[in-house]
Amino acid sequence: MTKVYAPADAQRDFLDLLRQVSSGKSVKIEAPQQAGNGAILVSESQWTAMQQQLQQANQTHEIQDREDLYKAWRWL
Fold first, then answer.
1. Angular region, 69: left φ>0, alpha ψ -120 to 50, beta rest
2. How is the chain split into domains, by residue range?
3. Model-level pTM?
4. Which candidate, 8, 15, 17, 39, has a CA 20 to 30 Å from the CA of 59?
């Protein structure tokens, strides 16, 4: 992320922010008095990639949990 925008600045420069996001940059919008409670704008392709990574991680954890459960049952 290159710059943090205040909500008013983000609203004023919204089209420019969309252009930045579509070129692959992420943009953060955060009100100074509410640090840590902001928003991140990402492109659709970045969002899809994040969702795929989360899905793969969940599948990996599910498989590992099943293997651990099987091992535990074998030892009973």
1. alpha
2. 1-42, 43-76
3. 0.61
4. 39
